[in-house]
Write a structure and sequence with these properties.
- With about 675 residues, this protein is of the alpha+beta class.
- Helix content is about 15%, strand content about 35%.
- The strands form 6 sheets. Strands 2, 3, 4, 5, 6, 7, 10, 11, 12, 13, 18, 23 and 27 form a 13-stranded mixed sheet that branches. Strands 29, 30, 31, 32, 33, 34, 35 and 36 form an 8-stranded antiparallel sheet that branches.
- The radius of gyration is 25 Å and the shape is globular.
- The two termini are about 45 Å apart.
- The relative contact order is 0.13.
């Protein structure tokens, strides 16, 4: 990455600025401004998050916001209510209070002497979500947004549910936020009241997993904050970005199709990170691309960005499966719209037949899909996030636990771009069931690399808001959309469709093991072939501002292991997200964070599915800063446990906080939550 030191504008930073809301709550903001901003007001760019500007996002903030400020923008990074140094409490993600506060923040920014009244909003994941949600509320100053790795449908495409099945990430992220929300306000910024603020948060900590488990199908809870309830609410220009290594990709074709505002789409090879420092490469000059967007919509400069085709996709080459990629070779393409015209993307129907996967034939006999509940351990992480061994590995073991259909070799290879969709008729042995579909790239050597996948809770097969349990033995016609993908199948490779009745630990097991039967006939995979012409790399090389000054005291060591108890047949997947121990040199704050997630499943007994997660957070400062009495040392240990029977989820959690050797807070939860749709 090219580190920039000289910019058209000299930049000054306001380390901490209080934004006082109407109810007296103070939100903490970090601001970067061109030096002459007061005499030459300019547009502003807002990023609004719960992840603590002081340490949580400080590294990426310093790569990004000073760069935009150096190019003539006021950049404001605000911590939400109840997070970082901001006052108050956070009750839930995307709550109405969060949005009301953001509207006040936008008005505050627009009224500052350094702002010309125009504003853009940007963010990845949570910040991408609320950029869309705020755009739907249409505050007058907000003219454009850049939303990365976000969704238009909180139920269908977030970390909670997928195809109506509960993702294990639902519990994983609840545990993450239990720890993140317990982080201490920095005494160097808030003074002696830090203990009172911290204790208030700990005493009122929400149990997010309980909230999310109480909404197992798409109800009004999920409709709030889902902009697909009325796409027409958004008038600001929207640039949507994601990566094939991320989970937030299916929202992009929907928004490109249904939004009526000015819009563009970009999908590269990346995991859940900003594309100027994400892996796998090629990283791109995201900041330069964003500057073209901001200049066009906030400064009325014709940068040509809206003259280009609206959709840019990276078709990644098929390569041997690996748990982590630093680079994915491939080709860039652009389409004139989405859905793309038939001259750019053509849909071909492939039949799952007696002879495999092909353009003709039929399935003359029923076939069983009888996977153990332990199938799916090679799926990889739902969201590759912490730069660990998160990607899917060789799928052959899971293929062996599935019903598979292989194509003949594609002698010249093929390009895939779009969402494959499987249409089949199945029966279940129980009044429940799951259908999982994987599309794999099978090399001549036999290696099986995951291309894309889809999953469906058969209780919600008709609609995500309607619970209709299967009638055992009664055929059900279902359609399973697979994730959007751009992929170049190498010459001589085959396609494989693998059908399973479990996928653990991607999703929680059904209430009982339910084997399926694929009915005879013409089960069909609709496969989108790309006919778009390749283009040269359309972006500049990545740039950033100067890196944050951080001393690494212990490097992070993320790890993922799979083990099997041969006696019981139980399979355990353990994910260790160790983010190391670092000290921020500018202000002396030291932070250590690590997590361990343990997911276990039994091949036949669904009541033995369980999850245990522990997060450890430590923060300290050994020496006061600038003569302040701001030395401290705290530790918070947060734990979640979930198990079930056929009727009930049993959720337990605890959080124990210390300052030095002194116990500050000890809180425990025990909840029983009925299984309604799962």
């Amino acid at each position: 990455m090219n580190i920039k030191h000289d910019f058209p504008n000299r930049v000054r930073e306001i380390e901490n600025q209080w934004i006082v809301l109407a109810d007296g709550t103070r939100l903490a903001a970090r601001i970067w401004l061109p030096e002459d901003a007061e005499s030459k007001p300019m547009p502003a760019i807002l990023e609004y998050l719960p992840y603590r500007k002081r340490d949580g996002t400080a590294v990426r903030d310093e790569l990004t916001h000073p760069w935009f400020a150096g190019h003539g923008y006021a950049c404001i990074r605000v911590d939400m209510r109840g997070n970082g140094e901001s006052d108050g409490l956070m009750e839930d993600e995307y709550a109405p209070q969060e949005q009301r506060d953001a509207l006040e923040v936008i008005d505050w920014i627009a009224a500052q002497p350094w702002c010309d009244g125009k504003l853009g909003m940007m963010g990845i994941s949570w910040g991408g979500f609320n950029s869309l949600q705020l755009a739907a509320l249409r505050p007058k100053p907000l003219k454009a947004i850049i939303t990365l790795c976000s969704t238009d449908d909180r139920y269908a495409d977030d970390i909670h549910y997928k195809g109506g099945n509960m993702l294990l990430e639902n519990l994983g992220w609840a545990a993450t936020m239990l720890s993140f929300s317990a982080a201490v306000p920095d005494p160097a910024l808030v003074g002696d009241q830090w203990r009172e603020m911290w204790k208030h948060r700990l005493d009122n900590m929400p149990l997010l997993a309980e909230t999310w488990l109480n909404h197992q199908h798409r109800d009004d809870y999920w409709k709030h904050g889902s902009i697909n309830e009325n796409y027409g609410d958004i008038e600001a220009a929207v640039y949507m970005i994601s990566g094939w290594g991320d989970s937030y990709i299916n929202t992009i074709p929907r928004m490109m199709e249904h939004l009526s505002c000015p819009r563009k789409a970009l999908i590269g090879p990346w995991m859940h990170k900003y594309p100027h420092f994400a892996i796998p490469d090629p990283a791109i000059g995201f900041l330069q691309e964003a500057l073209r967007w901001w200049d066009y919509w906030l400064k009325d400069v014709d940068t040509g960005i809206m003259d280009e085709p609206p959709c840019t996709f990276y078709l990644q080459d098929g390569v041997p499966p690996a748990p982590k990629y630093l680079e994915r070779p491939g080709k860039w393409v652009r389409t004139s719209a989405w859905p793309a015209p038939s001259t750019e993307v053509e849909i071909q129907s492939l039949v799952l037949s007696d002879h495999g996967l092909g353009t003709n034939g039929r399935l003359s006999n029923d076939r069983q899909i009888a996977s153990p509940l332990t199938a799916g351990s090679l799926q990889g992480e739902y969201i590759p996030l912490w730069f660990g061994a998160d990607f899917p590995t060789d799928q052959r073991r899971d293929d062996g636990l599935s019903l598979t259909f292989d194509s003949a070799p594609y002698i010249e290879g093929i390009d895939i771009l779009g969402q494959p969709t499987l249409a089949v008729s199945v029966t279940s042995t129980e009044a429940c069931g799951q259908l999982h579909v994987r599309l794999c790239d099978v090399a001549p050597s036999g290696e099986s690399a995951l291309i894309t996948y889809g999953t469906l809770n058969l209780n919600l097969r008709d609609a995500p808001g309607t619970i209709t349990p299967p009638v055992p033995g009664e055929p059900m016609d279902v359609r399973v959309p697979l994730d959007l993908i751009g992929y170049r199948l190498p010459p001589g490779h085959r396609l494989r469709v693998a059908l399973s009745s479990a996928s653990f630990p991607l999703v929680w097991s059904p209430s009982r093991r339910a084997d399926l039967t694929l009915k005879s006939g013409m089960p069909t995979l609709e496969l989108p072939f790309s006919k778009a012409a390749y283009i040269p790399m359309p972006f500049e090389p990545p740039e950033s501002a100067t890196h944050c000054r951080v001393e690494t005291l212990r490097a992070g060591k993320p790890k993922r292991t799979i083990s099997e108890d041969v006696g019981s047949g139980e399979v355990t997947v353990t994910v260790e997200d160790d983010m190391g121990d670092v000290r921020f040199e500018d202000h002396g704050l030291r932070v250590e964070q690590k997590a361990k997630e343990v997911y276990t499943s039994h091949p036949t007994d669904a009541t033995r599915t369980r999850a245990d997660i522990e997060w450890v957070y430590r923060a300290s400062r050994g020496e006061g800063q600038n003569g302040k009495n701001d030395q401290f040392a705290v530790e918070v240990v947060s734990r979640y446990h979930l198990h079930c029977d056929a009727q009930t989820f049993y959720l337990n959690a605890e959080q124990i906080a210390h300052e030095g050797e002194t116990l500050v807070s000890e809180k425990r939860w025990e909840r029983e939550i009925p299984r309604t749709a799962l």
